[in-house]
Amino acid sequence: MSKAVETFMADLIAKNPSEPQFHQAVHEVVESVMPIVETTPAFRQAKILERITEPERVLMFRVPWVDDKGQVQVNRGFRVQLNSALGPYKGGLRFHSTVTLGVLKFLGFEQTFKNALTGLPMGGGKGGSDFDARGKSDMEVMRFCQSFMMELFRHIGPDTDVPAGDLGVGGREIGYLFGMYKKLRNEFTGVLTGKGLDWGGSLIRTEATGYGATYFAQEMLAVRGDSLKGKTVIVSGAGNVALHTVEKVNELGGKVVSICDYDGAVHDPDGIDADKLAYTKELVFNKRGSLKQYAEKYKTAFLERAQPWTIPCDVAFPCAAENTLNGDQAKLLIKNGCFCVVEGANMPTTPEGVTAFLEAKVLFAPGKAANAGGVATSGLEMAQNAMHLSWGREEVDQRLHGIMKSIHKTCVEYGKEGNFVNYVDGANRAGFIKVANAMIAQGIV
Ligand code: 2IT
């Protein structure tokens, strides 16, 4: 760590105690951009690093609701409005028991650079609650979402802040949130993305993060004259991102041999083909069931309470939560022949894991580049809403594909080190420079 990075981080940690994920996310970006900051007097004079790590606004509010037994429940709601230099705050809402202010600050910080990389006019934000939908009825989820929106509505708007989904927030929750926003404002606008297809949503938005991560992998492999065809692939997670990654990898000729959820990992050496994927989608999205049922149905191995990192593969897509792939697991993947790692989730790899991959010259794509297809398609949803029309599937998919190619190209441009591309530095530098220049142009605000 350079002296400048060390000093900056010590101040940041003192100012933001007990927020380890935020420190981790900031540290990674600061490592990448400090050489630029040190040689760009305008960035130093405008205190860009100090300003970019301080959210423009943090909202924290009480979310009271009544459960099915008539008992009053109280959760905590947040919206962190990180940066609006490039456009309205944009980023998802996470409903999960692990949500804290520090987690949302890390996610909003990542989101700011990710959104910059998409090339679309979106600032960075993130929000959510410590509410956990597991074991709750639909009506309980609805009452919670309505109460959450009864406070949030006054802070958001189609040109102010446009939330979307994240972990624990899918189509059902976006519907309940949108319904309450519309009632309170008496306005039907594109204030949330990830809406249903009949009421303002965009085609491909559901698939976009997984498809986009796979398109990104395709670009990385193409640099080496390679492709996903015939590759053995593992994917962690079994949610929206993971399952749509499996779908696109299958389409491009790869074979996915593992996915995992909270209960454990399925190991299916024959590959999770289209039929098995259809079964899994129904199981996860509609029945809200466990992958154990997959293992029983298809008579495959099931690694209890484990992730797939022990399984040999060519390409890995970590698509679960943050810090779910550590240094030892990264080294094992490398030892078993994995040469390409594409983050479908936000910061799933620990700093030790990232270092191991970069030292071994693994093709490593950080989440803020590789999973940007989700928010990019949210940007396309906003554009369609603003024009009061909807594009066809082909059109949205082509735009998504074009955006992923362009993000890849930008990462190569900013991250090339001889024959190797450091996608971490590339993504951090390109995103940072764009946001920093916009901040400077807009004055000290
Ligand atoms: O992490 C992410 O990029 C998201 N959860 C999607 C955000 C969005 O606004 O679509």
Describe the fold and architecture.
By secondary structure, the protein is an alpha/beta fold. It has two domains: 3-187, 3-Layer(aba) Sandwich (Rossmann fold); 208-365, NAD(P)-binding Rossmann-like Domain (Rossmann fold, 3-Layer(aba) Sandwich). It contains 17 helices and 14 strands. The chain has a seven-stranded mixed sheet, sandwiched between helices. The protein has a five-stranded mixed sheet with strand order 1-2-4-3-5, with helices on both faces. The chain has a two-stranded antiparallel sheet with strand order 13-14. A hairpin with a 2-residue loop joins strand 7 and strand 8 (264-267). The model has no long low-confidence stretch (mean pLDDT 98). The protein binds (2Z)-2-iminopentanedioic acid (2IT). (2Z)-2-iminopentanedioic acid is lined by residues 90-92, 111, 114, 164, 166, 193, 346, 374-375, 378.
Name the descriptors.
Rossmann fold, alpha/beta, 2 domains, seven-stranded mixed sheet, binds (2Z)-2-iminopentanedioic acid, 49% helix, 445 residues, 14 strands, five-stranded mixed sheet, globular
